[in-house]
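Could you join me in thinking about how sequence relates to backbone shape in a protein? Would you write everything just below, so we can both look at the same thing?
***
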Amino acid sequence: MISSGGGRRGVAAPELETAVPSPFPHTTPVDPTTAGSGQLRAAYDQLANHFGAGDIPAEFRLLYGAPELLYATWVAVRESLVVGGAPRGDKELVAAGVARARGCAPVLRTHVRALRTGGRPALARTVRDGGTPGDPDHARLLAWGAATAVPDGPPAGLPVPADHLPEFLGTALTAHFLTRLGSALLSARAGHDVRDWPRRLLGGRAAARPEPTRAPRPGESLSLLAGAIGPEPSWAGGAPLGAGLAALRSATADTDQALTDTASRRVRTIVAAHGGRPPGTDLTDRHLSGRGWLYAALTGLRGADRPAAAVALLTALAPSQLTSADVEFWRLTAPGGASDDAALLRLAGFGAYTAVACIERSLVATALGAGTHPRS
């Protein structure tokens, strides 16, 4: 995902702020250049070096308030999409297919920019406008990414060489994670004013940055990870992307007091029952009349478990339907100290990754064979 110019020709781009304006109503923006640890600054430096300091995508800036989640997400994305032996543009098409199928405009915009700055402006326009690429290989990759977002999933196999399968699988899975967070927390329903801060985050041109002296190398982001990260996916074959995905799994398991064991089990059960994909609803449907599945899923939960599970389930299965009322109800009922924005990010992250884990099992079975297990 490489940044690109988005301003109109002949019009000066607005100056972009370093701090991300909070999409939630209860906090001030987080500036990674001054707040938190040196590790947060190191993560920011990697993002700025890649995208340009003024054009880090909103889906990453969103995570400044939950640093461990930011580190894991960036490592997983970088090590699967940005580096590796597979053509970068091909992986961007898979990620764009996921974002387009899920109706997540911020994440789609990021991948469209990458295609454009990668020297494929016509292809970028086609993807942006919902068209089908004229190149059959491009069309297959885009369609495969989109098919991972529907109940039946993609057909067996993947239209890429076997030795590149891990990179494409990792790309698709991280796209599923980010599109869920983006649809849930970067939308008007999530309770922020969409008229202003997305323009500052996503509008205008990329900030100038030095030309890289060499191509990025696999594993260079792993220094951001600290401590045990749990088992890596066996299908990753020991590549750095496996560590990134394992770290993402570990980071999203940390929900503090936001979810009791009862609520987290309910979330996992419901998401698994639906295969990590929405239960018979349009991915981009924001009408609340389609939330009957949610009310059935919450049956029997009591007290704070209901609103917490609702936020996680909506993020997992129907993120475009998460509303500010859902978030505020959760805040009012959450235990003390577990209702700030960092807790909300971790709660949404838990829901998003719970869906990703289900999709991972399905994709690994169809792409690599029914006898392959996602985790070693």
